[in-house]
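Reviewer 2 asked us to include a model.

Predict the structure of this chain.
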Amino acid sequence: MATYVRDKSGAFFQSGQAGTKAVNDPRTLASLMSGTTPSESRDLFASTPSPDQTDPTLTQDTQVDENSPITKFNLALMDMLKEAQGFGPSEQDFAHQRTIERTQTGKVSEMTPEELRVLSPSQQAAIRSGEVSALEPEADAIAAKIKAQDARLSNFENLLSAAKQFGGEFSKTIAPTKEIVDGYKRMIREGAQPTSIPNEIRNKVLASLDDDDWTKWREATTKEKGGFELSEGQTRYEYNPQTGKYNIVANAPKSKEDGEQPLNILDIQRYQELYPEAGIIAGDTQETANKKVAEINTPEDKMRSLIVAAKENGNDYETVVNEINNDNTIKDKKLANEIAQEIYNITPEASPVSEPAYGQGVFSKVEVKDRMKYLEEVGMPKSQIKVQLKKDGYSMEAIKKTGAGNIIDRLQSFLFNE
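Predicted model (structure tokens):
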């Protein structure tokens, strides 16, 4: 290992070679702080020793240890000084991010040539072709990089992460300084999503935002009038700080041909969940689905659905008609009967004509419907009316047409196969 000596000026010489220029060793503090190269350091500090330099201490061998703490400190100090003199990467990345965000939010016309130069050729090509959706992943990545390079926010989040390892209660006691809150506010004003703020302080940061902050945020994240138009099928969302949810603030207009295109599987599932009775199936278009939804909201189509269900359950035409005529909830009985005729393929001319049904004995002149009405008025239970009508001599066919005991009859038929 070579041995060095140092003179009063602070320059180093190889032992036994005093009077020569300093060796190529940059480890003087002056050279470290000045940021000069080793050759520059030699020229600045090397000198020819004067004849009176006869002090034996000046020729004492001094060894420079590369691993000594002072040497490491000097090197680190030089790195920090050089970084402070240069162009910070955070500022450059921030300019890059804002250019991409302004492209996505329709502010291309406001961009200067200097701002466009920070984009790569592929990104500039995407802007010219209008395919700004390709820039979304890069915008997210750059936003994350800026956040990581913001020393205050990065250090604070690292502190939160470390505190969580000691327990959730401990992390709740950490309060952000005003500088930290202002840093997150700046991120929001520049278009960052509120979800990028740590949960522990998100409410505090959002509560500190005023109307001007949210206006800046909306300008950075939403489409302005006369700006870049959304492509067909694209949707833009806006964060609502009051509800903590995202609302649709802009939706691309659909083309006229959309109504003629079959619904995709997601739209079909949405219709089936919201309107299960509409019968939306694969192959239906938007126009067809809307018509089906409108139809289920009309009394006519509800009645049609009920009659179809009654027919599928084995009820004959006469039974359905009798139920329609005796159901007080059906106001338009004429329309209901016409629908029943249509479903059962019965024309009005072929409709059966109900003859007056009379009983026997004292009820030989009393129609079954009048007798039934009287029994209901005196308060006889419906379960007993049918039995009484049988005693009065009315036929089972006539009683069935009145609808008396229909529910009980069906239950008996199911239990005893009558």
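Residues 256-292 form one domain. The two ends are 116 Å apart (CA to CA). We have added this to the supplementary material.
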